[in-house]
Amino acid sequence: MNLDSISVVLVSTTHSGNIGATARVMANMGLSRLSLVTPRAAIDEEARTRASGADHILDSARVFDSLPEALSDAVYVVGTSARQRMSRWRVFDPQGAADTIAGATISGEPAALVFGRESSGLSNAELDCCNALVSIPVDSAFPSLNLAAAVTVMAYALRCRAMEAKEPNEAAGARVEIPATAGEREHLFAHLVETLDDVGFLRSHGREKLMRKIRYLYSKAQPSSEEVAIARGILAAIRQKIRK
């Protein structure tokens, strides 16, 4: 697992100190890619003080207007949550999440670990952008965990996994499939919605609930780039046929 390919994504962070503390932890654990989605706090003097020298991570942090935009190049995305969620998400503990990220990015493809707002975490709509969910098993008597502390736990789990023995090399001559990125999956999903609208399927079913289940199905399948291209080719042929 290549730690340089893993992005830490903070959504709507309220306190600049948490951004700085996150940068410090990332530097401690060998992570370097920080993304900020609609941050409510700036990278100010407090952030730099809390970063304790990890200014290079703050200086290279990328800012995005939406979570899908921030995740567009990731082939595997894990969202974090302190709350129990509906069963449609696969839920891992920190080490399990690190293991599944390593398995999904065996050839060094980009992955992302997403952290939500300090007060309310990630919304269900934001978790729809993720392949899986990680929950840190804190004591139920005091479940509140600071954002930077949560990043510390997850960054440590990722570093431990990266320090283990390297993944075995692919067999000589074996064909390695390139996983589809989150952006490619989103384009496929939009293409599917358009096609289902064309055939009238969504008018006879509960649209929002059905599309969330279909989205989860594609996320769980972890299709390759080639498989996504094939699926979109099929959808394009269907739409061309019905429009004649």
Q: What is the highest CATH level, the class of the largest domain?
A: Alpha Beta
Q: What does the average pLDDT come to?
A: 87
Alpha-carbon Rg, integer? 19 Å
- Total of DSSP H or I helical runs spanning 4+ residues: 10
* Spatial arrangement of strands, main beta sheet: 3-2-1-6-4-7-5
Would you identify the CATH architecture of the largest domain? 3-Layer(aba) Sandwich
Stretches with pLDDT under 50, minimum 5 residues: 167-174
Total DSSP E strands: 7
Q: How many domains in all?
A: 2
- The CATH homologous superfamily name of the largest domain equals SPOUT methyltransferase, trefoil knot domain
Percent in helix: 40-55%
Shape, principal axes of CA atoms: elongated
Written as H for each helix and E for each strand, in order along the chain, the element string is EHEHHEHEEHEHEHHHH
What is the CATH fold-level name of the largest domain?
Answer: Alpha/beta knot
Report the biggest beta sheet as strand number plus sense, adding barrel if it closes. 7 strands, parallel
Which percent band covers the strand fraction? 5-15%
- Helix-strand category: alpha/beta
Q: How many angstroms does the end-to-end distance come to?
A: 49 Å
